[in-house]
């Protein structure tokens, strides 16, 4: 490879076979690839990697991603695209390839992220991450390293964001197998071993995920633990207090008045008052107060034919809570009641919880694999 320093391209590490030594220089031409796009844009795109690593770390720790992260990445993607188009032009064959692949990336991959968010399959951060990748990586980048050029495997279509997405799906499919293997090694053999793990009840209030149990048995759609934290903060109490005196908290008359209700927050562990311990307990009830039993159902007599057959009691104040906060991750009053009944069972010390899989985490893994190995699915299909 010839070196022409008069072109201010970024410094790269080049192995000189004639002198068998490493030298630093400036790359004259584009690294030999099928795309033919400039190296400056590809190096700029590498800034996306640490940003996604940061997002994945916080998604694991808090199940939250700072929304301010995406705007700078969008700027990076736009600048990289402008550098690509300014290098190859719009009228050349390479420019037409770039234009088509960018359109497919934004129109297909970016639209999928938005569509899945609208359908409720993705959170807002997941959708923004996919749409950001569709802008930042519309085509396959190339990086010259001492041992060769990466990525190694490139799909024929050449839409790199689609490669990242397929790698992400494969990484997500491997997660249940890893989870099941860990449970099996620890002797946790139960139906939800592929999607969950047992957690101590006293640690549930500080855990992210959703319950995989109800008082009637296992379920795939149990109470979201973010919604549980919202409820406990709204009531100004802790889970331990509810376990100490479930009868009192079950009574709908024990629900705080509107002026006494706390801020439910978004349900994050780190946001708002702690709900695992340190809050008010049943001992904080006024002196001489006794727990009140729920009122008996009102069954109509022949003298009151217009009265409903059963007067439904809002146990735990679940319906009042949801009416007040408006939305709690799709939780229904029945979901909340079932979760509270399960967690306040006196003899229960552990419950199965699905930790879920923050989608930004496998997306970060898919991005790393795509930038090094390339398109895993394309390699598997070719191997078969």
UniProtKB/TrEMBL annotation:
Organism (species)? Haloglomus irregulare
According to its UniProt record, where is this protein mainly located?
Answer: membrane
The segment(s) forming the Preflagellin peptidase C-terminal domain are 345-376
What residue ranges carry the coiled-coil annotation?
none
User: GO cellular-component terms in the record?
Assistant: plasma membrane
Q: Which residues form the Prepilin type IV endopeptidase peptidase domain?
A: 48-174
- Give one Pfam family: Peptidase_A24
Protein name from the UniProt record: Prepilin peptidase
Sequence segments annotated as region (Disordered): 242-307
Q: Where in the cell is it found?
A: Cell membrane
Q: Where are the transmembrane segments?
A: 69-86, 98-117, 129-149, 155-178, 357-381
- Could you list this entry's UniProt keywords, alphabetically sorted: Cell membrane, Membrane, Transmembrane, Transmembrane helix
Please give, as recorded in its UniProt entry, the membrane topology of this protein: Multi-pass membrane protein
> Bias regions of kind Basic and acidic residues — which residues?
242-253
Alphabetized GO MF terms: aspartic-type endopeptidase activity
């Amino acid at each position: 490879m010839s070196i022409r320093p008069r072109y201010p391209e970024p410094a790269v590490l080049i192995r000189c076979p004639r002198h068998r030594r490493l030298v630093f220089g400036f790359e004259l031409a584009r690294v030999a690839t099928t795309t033919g796009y400039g190296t400056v844009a590809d190096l700029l795109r590498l800034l996306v990697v640490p940003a996604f690593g940061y997002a994945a770390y916080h998604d694991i720790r808090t199940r939250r991603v700072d929304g301010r992260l995406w705007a700078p990445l969008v700027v990076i993607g736009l600048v990289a695209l402008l550098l690509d188009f300014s290098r190859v032009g719009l009228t050349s064959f390479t420019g037409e390839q770039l234009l088509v692949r960018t359109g497919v990336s934004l129109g297909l991959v970016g639209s999928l992220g938005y569509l899945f968010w609208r359908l409720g399959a993705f959170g807002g951060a997941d959708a923004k991450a996919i749409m950001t990748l569709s802008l930042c990586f519309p085509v396959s980048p190339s990086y010259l390293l001492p041992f060769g050029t990466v990525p190694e495997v490139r799909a024929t279509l050449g839409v790199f964001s689609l490669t990242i997405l397929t790698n992400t799906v494969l990484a997500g499919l491997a997660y249940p197998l890893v989870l099941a293997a860990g449970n099996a090694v620890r002797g946790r053999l139960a139906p939800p071993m592929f999607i969950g793990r047992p957690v101590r009840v006293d640690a549930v209030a500080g855990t992210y995920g959703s319950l995989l149990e109800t008082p009637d048995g296992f379920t795939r759609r149990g109470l979201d633990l973010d919604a549980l934290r919202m409820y406990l903060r709204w009531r100004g109490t802790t889970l331990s207090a509810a376990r100490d005196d479930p009868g009192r908290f079950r009574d709908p008359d024990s629900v705080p008045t509107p002026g006494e209700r706390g801020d439910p927050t978004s349900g994050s562990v780190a946001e708002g008052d702690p709900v695992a311990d340190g809050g008010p307990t049943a001992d904080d009830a006024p002196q001489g107060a006794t727990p009140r039993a729920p009122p008996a159902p009102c069954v109509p007599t022949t003298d009151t034919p217009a009265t409903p057959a059963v007067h439904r009691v809002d146990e735990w104040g679940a319906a009042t809570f949801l009416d007040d906060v408006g939305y709690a991750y799709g939780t229904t009053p029945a979901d909340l009641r079932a979760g509270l009944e399960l967690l306040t069972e006196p003899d229960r010390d552990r419950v199965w919880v699905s930790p879920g899989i923050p989608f930004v985490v496998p997306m970060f893994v898919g991005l790393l694999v795509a930038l090094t190995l390339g398109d895993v699915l394309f390699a598997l299909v070719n191997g078969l």
